Amino acid sequence: MTLRHPGVPTFSFLTTAYRTEHYIEATIASVLAQTWIDWELVIVDNGNSEEMAEIVGRYTHDSRIRLVRQENQGYVGGVMAAAAQARGRYFVVLDSDDHLLPDFCLRVAEFLITNPEVAAVGVDAVRFDAAGADLPIGYLRSVGIKRAPNPLHALSFGDVVGGFVPYYTAAIRADAWWAVQGYDPGLDNVDESVVIWLRLTQHYDVRVLPDKLARYRIRDDSISRGAEHVEAFEDALERSFESVQPLDDPRHAQLLAGHLRGMRAHREIRRARWALLSGDDHSARSAARGALRQRITLRSVLLLLGVYLVPGVLRSIHPVKNRIQDGLTRLRGRLSPMRTDRRHIVVLVENLSVPMDRRVWQESRALVDAGYDVTVICPLGRTTDTEREVVIDGVRILRYPLRAATGGPAGYPREYVMALAHTLRLLLKVRCSRRIDVLHACNPPDFFFPLGLLLRPWGARFVYDQHDLVPELFESRFSPTNRVGPALLAVTRMLERLTYATADGVIATNHSYRRVAIERGKVHPESVTVVRSAPDLSRFVPTPPDPDLRRGKQFMAAYLGVMGPQDGVDYALRAIAHLRSSGRDDLHTIIMGSGDEFDSLVALADSLGISDIVEFTGRVPDEFVARCLSTADVCLSPDPYNPLNDVSTMNKVVEYMAMGRPLVSFELVEARVSAGDAAIYVRSNDVAAFAEGIETLLDDPERREKMGLIGRERVENELSWESSTIALLSFYERVLARG
């Protein structure tokens, strides 16, 4: 199913504005911030306010925003006037002082695409006060709903008559809206946002997402602030539920009667409290008796005893009780988050920001698409990924500042202590807001297992996603003669063993890593799954070559990836220098990426006399990557042989293949497994042999074309991310089944 049709927006937001001039701009901004852009916003100036018209007029250059002006016809008249002008497939009532979160449209649209039979989709909301601060208790819990809704099950009429009334900002299909008369139900003095749910659930499939996708303002001048307004509101609410009587189903009648008794008992308790505080003990006792008649509860019994025996004491302790109650409410909101049927996965990353870490980003997106909630905790990027908190494509990302290790092995303990402290801080913040079902820890380094143990008493599973073999990584980076190196190596081996022992499941990037987990880590084979790093073919799409990138040369080579000590970019530079010294001067090379060795590699190119034919770009956007690789005649994978590289899958190898490019690689076990016949393999760590491999491909265009086709076909059929996604989701089903 598709939701987009020419000339018909997916969502029509219905907003009536009256005396909310100082709020309306923030509301409009929240709609403009939507990640799904197929919407319209119809604002009714419900009172012909010149100031309101001037404010909204600043935004009407956007054709999706329209202003309707009329004399004040009340809230319902304003909403229905907006509905009359709306053209969308789904109507969404949005009050002029409330906000949407950026993914409201996207999350609702994704659900509707896969559930086309659903007529209305509700959501939860964050409540915020007059100062703009978020309150600890969300909307649904604030109205007495203790368990988050399951969107896989329809909200029934019985649910609503029993008191489950969703937040009013919901997507309602236009035909269903008009069939139930929208916000004009033909009844006097009722709450239309309740009546519409009662009518929708009687005739249509209604679902409620557990996600907080909007913000509901608690205003100082709201109806909850004055006795007369509260009484009028409660009268309307009671009449709304009574409007469905008589009920044919005895179960529904029983649910409704119980809910009405609860509402009336709550009203009498409030009346008793207000009378007591005003010094009217007689009215307080009368109301307390009324509460007890409606429903016998511990609260109503204690209130009755108090107003008869110690009314003065109750008056004096009331302010203290309120402060204690407010504190307990905040604490409960942090420590006992509403349970949800959507599994929540928290992904921990230390060595790269996200989405810069393409594997983590692909995993996170795949899990979100499969119906999981995903939160990523990672470092801030240097030039990209610089927001502390952001939601992208449904993935919530929390980032922290981190200075990478410098000065050799001794710098790593400092980096890792700071990273662990920041990760723990943000993890506790997440856990205080909601349950965590899986802690998914990506290495390097291998220090997240204590956090898995910390969450285990609350039922969280711990997944070890082993991107690198950290002991081999340190062994390849540091000379054994370094005094700190051996000690650090011993620590990495110990941390790896502890992580294996703690994990409920292990994800390996290839079969070599899987063998290490089974043999060295003593992990049961059924608990280790291979999820290969693979390119997203929607991102790696060949484009027409760009001759300007060759900088006047006949041929071009390209490198894409990290530039650390173990990545071998220095071998590539020396090979290019070797080609030039042997008389070949028809090759320009572009080096894309960054890393610890970036500055020293630029200096090396200068010292080798090849800085005029080697271009360092740093990190570049996807568009440039696609254009550059599509232009390259040869791609470079110069990772030297060492204990780590021999058994590691290099992302760049598969990315070159996805773009249909041939490559040169040193002889490595996993390089052959990945590339097959799409690469030329040369003697390990031999600069002259690497240069010879480049020259062989440059001089044989037919072989280059054949190898490129082999690589692309291999990625499409065997190594694509679609295949890895199947393995990832199957792994998660097994891990969670054990929980």
Helices, strands, pairings?
Elements: E1 11-17, H1 24-32, E2 39-46, H2 50-57, E3 65-70, H3 74-85, E4 90-93, E5 99-100, H4 104-114, E6 120-128, H5 139-142, H6 157-161, E7 171-173, H7 174-179, H8 192-203, E8 206-217, H9 227-242, H10 250-277, H11 281-294, H12 298-309, H13 311-335, E9 344-348, H14 358-369, E10 373-379, E11 389-392, E12 395-400, H15 411-433, E13 438-442, H16 449-455, E14 461-466, H17 470-477, H18 485-502, E15 505-508, H19 511-519, E16 528-530, E17 555-560, H20 569-581, E18 587-592, H21 598-607, E19 614-618, H22 622-631, E20 634-637, H23 651-658, E21 663-666, H24 669-675, E22 679-682, H25 687-698, H26 701-719, H27 721-738
Parallel strand pairs: 1-2, 1-4, 2-3, 6-8, 9-10, 9-13, 10-12, 13-14, 14-15, 15-16, 17-18, 17-20, 18-19, 20-21, 21-22
Antiparallel strand pairs: 4-7, 5-8, 6-7, 11-12
Helix pairs in contact: 9-10, 10-11, 11-12, 12-13, 14-27, 17-18, 20-25, 23-26
Chain oligomer state: single chain
Strand order, biggest sheet? 3-2-1-4-7-6-8-5
Question: What is the general shape?
Answer: elongated
State the total count of DSSP E strands. Answer: 22
How would you describe the overall organization of this protein?
This protein has 739 residues and is of the alpha/beta class. Strand 21 (663-666), helix 24 and strand 22 form a beta-alpha-beta unit. The chain is elongated, with a radius of gyration of 32 Å. Residues 221-225 have low confidence and may be disordered.
